[in-house]
Design a protein that fits this description.
The protein is of the alpha+beta class. The chain is built from eight helices and 17 strands. The longest helix has 17 residues.
Length: about 325
């Protein structure tokens, strides 16, 4: 399965900060119509797609989250600038000078005190989030109000033949993996959930799991790749170009050992490149799903991604192809366990 770059670009460039995922959901509904047996939107905004397969087995739930990290307006000052807070895990150090976009199209810049006004001591300190504001070049009160969300304003770029740079690859790449699979015949019944509110604690996935009551769950995700200068060995976590990632543990989940071993056995038998994470870090929808109901056997399948939660994340298209192959192998094997 080759990556559909045009559709990935469409997904990534949509605004979809946690709690405001409607544009992404509408796009997916349009793409999925006619390909699923049921499409349901629950009270929180999760899109639940059910597709029957040739056989029935254990109830399998998949998820990919629609939301991205971003910003929420807390107030508009008298001078027209905007105070904000972050939504999801964003490092404040990366923010000065970045562009942000409102869903209606207005673009602003994250600004801080000009460098010529900084004391020598100030220049040595990291920027505090409370020191930043957003400048839209006009009085933002004319089109913004508290509670409005803003996403990074950044292009979708092909860096070279096999690398893609964009905002929101976490987790629009996962959304595309599920979307493309749902357009094909399946071996077993699948509940594929495009979740909301993952970046603020996996809340959407929890309510969806309580509704579906799965036996098995696979989070289809991106995960931090730190294969960069200065990071050696296990500090790299995982690396671009070495295949999809199946972790054994992260900050939210200790994954089911039977499913973990199954993934690597399937990869070896079918010649699919697969790696694990070499540090216990991060988390995903499995953190809440595995604790739902009476407990759910869970696994994560992820794309390695550099610069997660920034305006310019990077993935490798070969890793996407590996993840697509692994997803199909797992969906053909897990429900029959």
């Amino acid at each position: 399965m080759m990556l559909d770059e045009k559709m990935l670009a469409q997904l990534c460039l949509l605004p979809g900060v946690s709690g405001d995922e409607g544009a992404v959901r509408d796009f997916l509904i349009k793409e999925l119509e006619g390909h699923c047996d049921e499409l349901t939107v629950d009270a929180l905004g999760n899109l639940i797609a059910f597709k029957k397969g040739a056989w029935q087995g254990g109830r399998l739930m998949l998820s990919a989250h629609m939301d991205e990290v971003g910003f929420v307006v807390t107030s508009v000052e008298e001078d027209g600038s905007v105070r904000f807070d972050t939504v999801g895990g964003i490092s404040t150090e990366i923010l000065p000078g970045k562009l942000v976009r409102h869903a209606q199209g207005a673009v602003g810049v994250l600004m801080t005190k000009p460098v010529h006004l900084l004391s020598p001591a100030d220049r040595e300190k990291p920027v505090e989030k409370t020191e930043l504001r957003i400048d839209f070049g006009t009085n933002a009160a004319e089109f913004l109000q508290p509670g409005d969300t803003l996403c990074f304003d950044a292009p979708f770029e092909k860096q070279e033949e096999h690398r893609i740079l964009s905002k929101a690859l976490d987790d629009r790449a996962g959304c595309l993996l599920l979307l493309e699979m749902l357009k094909e015949p399946l071996s077993y019944d699948v509940y594929a959930v495009f979740t909301v509110l993952e970046e603020v604690g996996g809340r959407g996935a929890l309510t969806a799991a309580n509704r579906i009551r799965p036996d098995y769950f696979i989070a289809v995700e991106t995960t931090t790749a730190a294969d960069l200068p200065g990071a050696e060995g296990a500090q790299q976590v995982c690396a671009l170009g070495r295949g999809a990632v199946v972790p054994f543990m992260d900050r939210g989940t200790i994954y089911d050992k039977e499913l973990y071993r199954l993934a690597f056995r399937l990869a070896e038998e079918n010649g699919v490149r697969l790696q694990t994470k070499t540090m216990i870090a991060g988390g995903n929808d499995a953190g809440t799903v595995h604790r739902s109901g009476t407990g759910v056997k869970s696994l994560a399948l992820a794309l390695p991604c550099r610069y997660l939660h920034t305006a310019g994340s990077i993935i490798d298209t070969a890793d996407y192809d590996s993840a697509a192959a692994m997803l199909r192998l797992l969906c053909a094997a897990v429900p029959g366990l």
